[in-house]
Structures are given as C-alpha cells and as structure tokens.
C-alpha cells in the first residue's frame, strides 16, 4: 500500500510539473518574454537585464548583443544569394516600441530620381548632419543592397542613440532568401555602444575596435563636442563608401593610416543631384520637398575653418558624363582655410571646387575638364602632381577680386594618364564672365607633353583680356618633363610671364603667396 501511495504522489507531481511547463513556455519559444524564475534572476543581476539576447533565426544577423555602432551597418547572411523585394519595410524600434528608423523597399525598388530642391522626400534620401546643427545635407543613398549572400542595411544618419537597446523587424516581402519568413517583433535585438570617452580624438575603422564605423559619424561627434574645439579623427585602412557634410564645424584634422589604404569614395554627379548644392533647415517629411539639393560632390563643407586632411585617397567614382566633384568647399566669407597633405583627389570633371583659402602639399589631383575650379582667394598647390585623365582644361578660376592670387601651382608636376594624347590639356580656360577674374599662376612647374605650345585656352577670352603681374594667367620658370627650361614663345598672348623680381616679391614660397591674406601664414605647416 505504501508503495502504491508513493507512486500516486509521484504521478500527481508529474502532472502538475507538465501543466507548469505548458503554462510557462520557454524563453526561446516566446521570443524574449522570460518565465518567472528568469525574471527573479534578472532582478538579482541587473547586468543580465541589460544584455540583449542573440537571436536564433536560421541565418546570421549582425549586430547582436551589446557594442553595436550608432553609425554601423546591419547585415543578414544567408546560405545562398538573396534578392530584394519591391515592397515591405525594414524597421528599427527602441526597446519601448518607439519607431527609430524605417526603410521602405518600394522606395528602394524605384529608379533613382535626380535630387532637386522640391524633390519629395522618401526613404532613399539621407539627411546628413548632427541634430543639434538643425541644418542638413540631403543626399540620395542606397539604404539596402545585396553583396553575395548578404543583405546590407544602412540606417539613416543619426537615428540611433548611444547606450540604447533596439530591435529590428523586416516584412517577409522585403527579402527573398532561403529560410527567410520575415523577422517579427523582438526577434532581433542589439544594444549600441556608449559614446566615446574622448572629446579630442576618435578612431574610425571598418572592422575591429573603434569609436565609429563612418567618417560622418566622427564629424557629427566633433560638432557635439563643440564646433570650435579641436578634434583629431584617426582613420584606419579601409574603403569608406559614404558622402560627408560639415557646416560651421572647425579645427578638425582627418589623419588616414595610409594614402593608398584609406579610401573615401562615392558615385555622385549632376545626374543624381542638382548643382553644387547646399544645406537646408527643412527637416524630412514624407512626401514633402526636401528643401535643398545636397549637391553632386562627395564632400560638402560649408563655412568650416581650419580643416585638414592627411594620408588618404578621396574619389568620386561616378565617371562620365557630367560634373562630379570630390569636394565642394563652400567658404562664403572667404575667411577660412582648408589643408590637404599627402592626399589623392580623383574624379574627372570638376574634381576640386573651392572658395576661400586652401593649401595642398604633396598631393595628387586627377581629372579632365575644369578639374580644379572655383572662387578661391588663394589656393596653393605645392609640390603636387596634377594629372590629366583625359583631354580638357586644368583650371577654371572665378576669383572674386582682381587682387586675389587665385590658383597657384608651385613646384608642381603636370602629368598625364596612360593613353591621353599629347597637347590635349590646357593650363586653364575662362568661364567668360566679367564678374570674376581668371587668376592662375604656374611657378617653377614641370609640364609634360600633354600641355600644348599655346598653354592656355583662349575661347572665351579671359578676364582680364591681357594678364599682368597682379591679375590673369601667369607663368614663371616653366620646364619640360625632364626639368629643362621650356620655350614659351608660342604661349597665348593673353598670358603673362612674371619677372624674377615679381616672382621673388610674391610667389617664391608659400609664405610669400599667403602673405597679407586674412588667414595669415601660421597654419601652413
């Protein structure tokens, strides 16, 4: 009897335990809702409560857990190549269910539309710039792409906060892939990193330990730390596929790990965005006009002072046809300075567009049509290689004043890419307006056979029509590629040959060239 009674008690206990199992299903089964025992454990260990759980979805997703970057990519990796759908949404929510960001695959599937001031906003537009600036550069971008077996998601800028938990949902129609049936609420969790500890120096890297995954992320942090506070941005080797924007953000030094190893690039052009562009104070509203085209350059800087780039390659990868700047430095006041040291700037038409004051030292600038241009007061290229990538014109100057030295090439080497014809690149051409001045000077430069005997392109006529020591097209000490003195007897009559005294007085070195300008000479180091 005692044995039978004990067996009955054990059977009853088993029934109760089984019922409990049905009443309280496992954590994995209900995607994140812990049972009572787990809740008690989490109360005892607050660190466990803060750590998002790595999802089990049948394919790999990143990021998961803690340590996600606020400017990083999200990826899904499948066993075979996925395809993107033409409808459905990818959404990122804060842990309390508030929507942080959304990408609509219907927008992604539509053909790209040239960005105009009144182009209606959709989720293939990004608004670059820190929220506290309250101005943005609007750009076309690719929020979702496929690379091999991966889907790569690029959230919109400044949608994620530091030290915050998020979950991702993806509609089943958004992606076609083996085993993919959509991602539901709270199936894919991650938590972002804390903000950087330093307000003076940060690191950007594509992989591994760093403060940011994008250069724009570091720019936004710099502004948050104080737009006039010095910031050094150290950039590890890697290819950074992004567009940049800064406005009234000063004293930033970008230092690449190596010139060939750090590549900032993007394919932008007049085909994709109207004009040189600018920023807007109009926030993004679905269906309403964006307010202002962010322009066709890879980099847009507006009224930024004491900016310096070292040891990197900057490219606009668009190609032909059309204008496609690497950088548009819009210094409307003409009072600021911009420096490049040991950098390469590569595009075709309109590679470099600047205002104000600029110094390039030991850099490569490559292009074909007007690939150095703008309204510079003084822009010095010192010991640089100026490479013709095709036939065309090196400079189109639009200097505001007759007294501005404009674009000055000191001890430079004018070369050509393979296959470019002799005599197919002139030193400059004019925009044909009396409202600005064609102030360009080549000082002690070696010129390959790509430069014709006439040197300059005379149609339309430059302003002034006949250059002087102060204004117009000038040369001194020009040499052939081997370094021998070049005969200038065939030069265009509109140009001027500086005397030795004029060279000594105003052009012999960088200090003389910038002497008397509003920016002085202390920054030239």
Oligomerization category of the chains in this entry: single chain
Instruction: Provide the structure class.
Output: mainly beta
Q: Please estimate the helix content.
A: 10-25%
> Can you count the beta strands?
34
Dominant shape: elongated
Sheet of most strands? 21 strands, parallel
User: Distance between termini?
Assistant: 100 Å
Number of helices: 7
Proportion in β-strands: 25-35%
- The stretches of 5 or more residues where confidence is low (pLDDT under 50) are 1-49
What is the gyration radius calculated from CA atoms?
Answer: 29 Å
* Overall pLDDT metric: 91
Report on the structure:
Helices cover 12% and strands 35% of the residues. The chain is built from seven helices and 34 strands. It has a 21-stranded parallel sheet that branches. The protein is elongated and about 75 Å long. Mean pLDDT is 91; it is low at 1-49.
Write a concise synopsis of the structure shown.
With 525 residues, the chain is mainly beta. Helices cover 12% and strands 35% of the residues.
Keywords:
21-stranded parallel sheet, elongated, 12% helix, disordered N terminus, 525 residues, five-stranded mixed sheet, 34 strands, 7 helices, mainly beta
């Amino acid at each position: 009897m005692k044995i039978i009674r004990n067996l009955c008690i054990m059977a009853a206990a088993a029934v109760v335990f089984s019922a409990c199992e049905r009443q309280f299903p496992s954590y994995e089964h209900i995607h994140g809702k812990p049972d009572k025992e787990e809740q008690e454990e989490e109360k005892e260990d607050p660190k466990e409560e803060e750590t998002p759980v790595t999802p089990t979805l049948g394919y790999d997703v990143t990021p998961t857990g803690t340590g996600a970057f606020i400017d990083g990519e999200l990826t899904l990796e499948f066993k075979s190549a996925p395809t993107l759908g033409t409808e459905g949404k990818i959404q990122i929510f804060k842990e309390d269910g508030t929507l942080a960001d959304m990408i609509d695959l219907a927008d992604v599937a539509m053909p790209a539309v040239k960005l105009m001031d009144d182009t209606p906003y959709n989720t293939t537009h990004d608004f670059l710039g820190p929220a506290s600036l309250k101005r943005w550069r609007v750009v076309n971008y690719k929020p979702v792409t496929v690379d091999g077996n991966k889907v790569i998601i690029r959230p919109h800028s400044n949608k994620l906060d530091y030290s915050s938990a998020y979950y991702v949902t993806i509609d089943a129609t958004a992606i076609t892939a083996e085993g993919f049936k959509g991602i539901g609420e709270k199936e894919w969790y991650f938590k972002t990193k804390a903000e950087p500890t330093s307000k003076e120096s940060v690191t950007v890297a594509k992989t591994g330990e760093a403060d940011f995954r994008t250069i724009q992320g570091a720019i936004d942090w710099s502004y948050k730390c104080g737009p006039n506070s010095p910031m050094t941005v150290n950039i590890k080797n890697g290819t950074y596929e992004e567009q940049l924007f800064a406005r009234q953000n000063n004293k930033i030094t970008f230092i690449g790990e190596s010139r060939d190893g750090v590549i900032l690039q993007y394919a932008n052009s007049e085909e994709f965005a109207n004009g040189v562009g600018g920023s807007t104070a109009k926030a993004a509203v679905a269906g309403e006009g964006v307010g202002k085209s962010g322009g066709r350059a890879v980099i847009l800087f507006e009224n930024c002072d004491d900016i310096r780039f070292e040891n990197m390659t900057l490219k606009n990868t668009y190609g032909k046809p059309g204008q496609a700047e690497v950088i548009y430095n819009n210094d409307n006041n003409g009072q600021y300075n911009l420096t490049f040291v040991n950098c390469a700037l590569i595009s075709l038409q309109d590679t470099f567009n600047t205002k104000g004051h600029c110094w390039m030292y030991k850099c490569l600038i490559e292009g074909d049509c007007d690939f150095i241009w703008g309204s510079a007061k003084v822009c010095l290229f010192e010991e640089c290689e100026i490479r013709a990538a095709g036939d065309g014109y090196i400079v189109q100057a639009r200097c505001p004043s007759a007294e501005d030295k404009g674009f000055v090439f000191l001890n430079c080497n004018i070369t050509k890419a393979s296959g470019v014809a002799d005599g197919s690149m002139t030193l400059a051409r004019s925009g044909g307006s009396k409202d600005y001045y064609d102030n360009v000077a080549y000082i002690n430069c070696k010129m390959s056979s790509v430069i014709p005997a006439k040197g300059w392109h005379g149609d339309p006529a430059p302003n002034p029509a006949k250059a002087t020591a102060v204004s117009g097209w000038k040369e001194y000490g020009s040499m052939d590629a081997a370094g021998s003195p070049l005969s200038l007897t065939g030069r265009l009559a509109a140009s001027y040959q500086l005397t030795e005294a004029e060279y000594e007085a105003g052009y012999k070195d960088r200090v003389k060239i910038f002497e008397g300008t509003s920016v002085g000479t202390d920054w030239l180091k």
